[in-house]
Structure formats: C-alpha cells, structure tokens
# Entry
Amino acid sequence: MMTAVLCLLVFHGLIGGLDVILNHELIERLPERLGAKTEEALHGVREFIFAAIFGGLAWFEWHGAMALVLGLIIAAEYLVSFADTLLEERTRRLPLIERALHTILFINLGAYTALLVPQLIDWGRMPSGMQLIHHGMLTWLLSALSVLSFTWGLRDTLSYFVLRKKQNRIAGA
# Structure
C-alpha cells in the first residue's frame, strides 16, 4: 500500500511542479503581480507542507502520536489548498490548463490520502516514534521533490514579502 501512496506523491509533485512553472510563473507571472501577494503566501505554506510530506514519507514511518502529527500536516494541506482555490476564484480568471491541473491535483490528493489513512491508523497503534525506512528509488525521488518544494516555498515566501513591501510603498505614496 505504501508503494502506491509514494507513487501518487511523486505524481503529485510532478503535476504540482508543472502547475507552478507553467501557470504561476510563465503564464500568470504571480511573483510580479501585486494582487497575488496572499496567493504567494499560501503557495509558500503549501510548498513547505509538501516538503515535509515528501521528505517525511520518503524516509520514515510515523508511529504512535507521530501518525497524528502527519495526519494534521495533511489536513493543513487540505485547508491551504481550499483557501487558495477560493482566493484564486475571487482574484483572477484561471487559464483552462491551470483548472485542469488543479482538478488532477485534488483528485490525486484524495487518492493518496485514502490509501494513507489505513496506514496511519496502523502506525497510530504502535509506540510513538519515527522509524527510519528506505523505499529505494522512491525515497530518492521524494527527497528531490522535498528539496525542490522547500526551495520553492522559500522563493514564494520571499515573493510575498517583496509584494507586501511594494504594496505598502504604493499605499504610503
């Protein structure tokens, strides 16, 4: 079951990366748009969440109370994604390719979560702790996605602060 979860996570990282580069950067140029400040903040948070999920499941089993921690991290991803979707609907017209990729990402989010929940329940019955594990190539792919997500999270967070500073400067002028 974990192999399927990890494969879905790799797929999620690839489709999410395509969405970021194609839609957020090339088509919409969100880091340059003053009105995208809050969206950039949400994207930064989500990228940090995925860095934790990718890296955390690449290298560890989450036993006992740690299974609840991972469940809360995934629940946070749902909340951030829903907030981002509502914000995007209010602030800009999404290109069809972005809507399509978001649909795929939400379906995949549900799929990997549905497969992961029984594992989290099993892990939750064990003594609390993190058990080191290695899943071969999937560990390395998810590790790379974790580093990329973390790096892009820093970039989008920086973009938020730059846009906020510009907005404050304009408001003060």
Q: What stands out?
A: Residues 137-172 form the longest helix (36 residues). The helical segments are 2-27, 37-59, 65-91, 96-124, 137-172.
